[in-house]
């Protein structure tokens, strides 16, 4: 194990990455909060600002996958469809089989300039989670309670709000609803058998209502559905902990563009279409296991140096702001406690606080 790999596997390295992400994320959340009055003046300007702010958070996760872990994400697609990516609104249908498939999906978005404006269908509870959840709230992410009777109106309204969105966006959908596990797969296939639906070896049964509602409400807004099938070479089982430890994975993403007008408008026909799509995904994965990679239509889309420098400088700037704020806050608290000790405790010193101060100064000096 080399020195760099050893460094990446250390807990202090992980702690530093999380520290930068959380604190810079909270600063971005605060800036997003400051845009609230702007919504009353210029909704579109507020949206554009929030797209850039959201990119500041999401790009850190993508950079961790690509630059820290060194994971390679290879795109396979039709060369005729490639020029359209990033230049149109689209619904991206991804398989939900791995811990980091959302990171690979975001990498796909980042390559074509829509990471800051990418959307998902997320649980309502996530809206209350600091950094990511708050970022999504200002990005107008579609939240749902997974109770269709309650979700129908709110999801429809949220999707309709995207019709006048000022920049191109991709709406990422995990139609399986949850990540693949053997137990979930067994239950899902029992449901498929009871409904007379074909069994899927590598996927859960797709949930068709959410897909149909999304397609119906984004007709005229989104131009296509990007059927995206993700797999990892050599039977790799990627994990978030592996990414933090700097382990390199090899992801292959097969994407085909399907014009939205070719998808049936009738709910029953649309459901049948989606089930057929997942059967085709199964064939792609079976082909992959034998003929890895997917096909000869491979396109390497590398991260540009300018983008990397932007991310690095941005994170460092946010970190420095956080350090300055933390230092000022520490001084204020320190002086307050000294005053308290002088007035009420004589001139006794709090040894625990002195120890905290020395550790804090050490961290700040190292940072």
Automatic annotation (TrEMBL):
Please classify the protein's predominant subcellular localization into one broad category.
endoplasmic reticulum
UniProt-listed SMART domains: PlsC (SM00563)
State the source organism's domain of life.
Answer: Eukaryota
Task: Supply the alphabetized keyword list.
Answer: Acyltransferase, Endoplasmic reticulum, Lipid biosynthesis, Lipid metabolism, Membrane, Phospholipid biosynthesis, Phospholipid metabolism, Transferase, Transmembrane, Transmembrane helix
Q: InterPro entries, from UniProt?
A: Acyltransf_C, Plipid/glycerol_acylTrfase
Q: Name one GO molecular function term.
A: 1-acylglycerol-3-phosphate O-acyltransferase activity
Pathway named in the protein's UniProt entry: Lipid metabolism; Phospholipid metabolism; CDP-diacylglycerol biosynthesis; CDP-diacylglycerol from sn-glycerol 3-phosphate: step 2/3
Reaction(s) catalyzed by this protein? a 1-acyl-sn-glycero-3-phosphate + an acyl-CoA = a 1,2-diacyl-sn-glycero-3-phosphate + CoA; 1-octadecanoyl-sn-glycero-3-phosphate + (4Z,7Z,10Z,13Z,16Z,19Z)-docosahexaenoyl-CoA = 1-octadecanoyl-2-(4Z,7Z,10Z,13Z,16Z,19Z-docosahexaenoyl)-sn-glycero-3-phosphate + CoA; (4Z,7Z,10Z,13Z,16Z,19Z)-docosahexaenoyl-CoA + 1-hexadecanoyl-sn-glycero-3-phosphate = 1-hexadecanoyl-2-(4Z,7Z,10Z,13Z,16Z,19Z-docosahexaenoyl)-sn-glycero-3-phosphate + CoA; (4Z,7Z,10Z,13Z,16Z,19Z)-docosahexaenoyl-CoA + 1-(9Z-octadecenoyl)-sn-glycero-3-phosphate = 1-(9Z-octadecenoyl)-2-(4Z,7Z,10Z,13Z,16Z,19Z-docosahexaenoyl)-sn-glycero-3-phosphate + CoA
Family, per entry: Belongs to the 1-acyl-sn-glycerol-3-phosphate acyltransferase family.
- What are the BP-aspect GO terms? phospholipid biosynthetic process
Q: What is its EC number?
A: 2.3.1.51
Q: What is this protein called?
A: 1-acyl-sn-glycerol-3-phosphate acyltransferase delta
Q: Where are the transmembrane segments?
A: 12-41
Of the GO CC terms on this record, one is: mitochondrial outer membrane
- Function in brief: Converts 1-acyl-sn-glycerol-3-phosphate (lysophosphatidic acid or LPA) into 1,2-diacyl-sn-glycerol-3-phosphate (phosphatidic acid or PA) by incorporating an acyl moiety at the sn-2 position of the glycerol backbone. Exhibits high acyl-CoA specificity for polyunsaturated fatty acyl-CoA, especially docosahexaenoyl-CoA (22:6-CoA, DHA-CoA).
Q: Which species is this record about? A: Nothobranchius furzeri
Domain Phospholipid/glycerol acyltransferase positions = 90-212
As for membrane topology, the entry says: Multi-pass membrane protein
Q: Could you say which residues form the signal peptide?
A: none
Record localization? Endoplasmic reticulum membrane
